[in-house]
Amino acid sequence: MAVTESAMVPSEAPGEAQEAPGGFPAGTEGARAAHEGILRRQSARESAARTYARALPIVPVRARGLTIEGADGRRYLDCLSGAGTLALGHNHPVVLEAIRAVLDSGAPLHVLDLATPVKDAFTTELFRTLPPRFAERARIQFCGPAGTDAVEAAFKLVRAATGRTGLLAFTGAYHGMTSGALEASGGATDVRVARLPYPHDYRCPFGIGGDRGAELAARWTESVLDDPKSGVPRPAGMIFEPVQGEGGVIPAPDVWTRRMRAITESRSIPLIADEIQTGVGRTGTFWAVEHSGITPDVMVLSKAIGGSLPLAVVVYRDDLDVWRPGAHAGTFRGNQLAMAAGAATLRYVREQGLAQRAATVGRRILAELRALAAEFPMVGDVRGRGLMIGLECVDPEAPPAPAPDGPRPAAPGLAAAVQRECLRRGLIVELGGRQGSVVRLLPPLTISDEQTTAVLDRLADAVRAVAREDGRTRAADRTRDSDRPR
Question: Which end of the chain is more exposed for a tag (fewer CB within 10 A), N or C?
């Protein structure tokens, strides 16, 4: 049975009031002033590109498991988990122990790409978790510490191996923030990557959804590749997410995934699975491609594989390993602390069966959120896989399109309101989707049944509050409209 964390950080012992930074007891006026001062200085000093800090004005000072404590003494249940990085939640004991062991050993912390016992242990554990057919012929390249660098490495790899330059990607994709990764992402504006339709049951690009919509998406892909007048030459590779995260939590149907594997394999196109957010048990299997049973040619891995510390790798089939020495390098590709934390995380998830736990808890959350959707029309769709879950907010009074059975228009304002109401209730959630209308849940795999209940209660209460306020606002608007002279 997996070890899980309790619902909240234990309170301090009587007479032992905890202190916020600056020496103020948590919750005092001094602590709140320190909290506000830090936020003001961040706003004045940091880039306008900052994101999470805008919607989540908190100053974390302590954390354990699912729970974060802010400098102002407030406590939160964290269902953002470092955008999916924290498979075991904050400061899990096995992660802290692994980091301390390296620090206490006197081992070097920076080694470029030299072999070390820590790296060997990480690589061995990672290969143990990979799909067996893939692991049999796998090679690994350690990249810069962010997942986007591993995506860039994957692109360079398949281009070198095939001698081709073009790439195939999908609408709604998100693969990172560097130039090549952005070109393959759904928000690209200067596109040098052929974009293909990703199957989306709720907002199907063909307006029909289901198996038929996924079939049409697959046929479109075949047509683009086989039509000599499509304007798309034979590409160097295809990259896809088994579940689109930033795109709005959209799981790829297993039949469609197997079809993409068959299409690419028969045309000698390397298939790249981006498992940066879906990996390490997140979707209910250790790697999300295992749901469909496919064996990709390349896997891009980051986030949870570092056990909360920066680490990114690309793992690929050995016959693609045509790089010359130094073809892809980086000063910080040998992070010993991240490898130790990552090996401990991978081992713990595997030994404790946390992927299966994610599948079980995920089914419960989906069922309860779908019941909530039946109660509140502003919840247009609930979807996900394992502990990667999304709730899409829509305009409850707008007509569906295409009528009469299509989805209502996305309502990013309502989603943002739900996020604010969640924060007021001590629950941290993320927003995603095409218009930022999807409330996303990415809790740690160690979430307990008690914590799951608390998360669901707070989220449901936030949705009810937003629905009530939206109803009052609409009623007031209708009253004002009826009072205007005609």
Answer: C
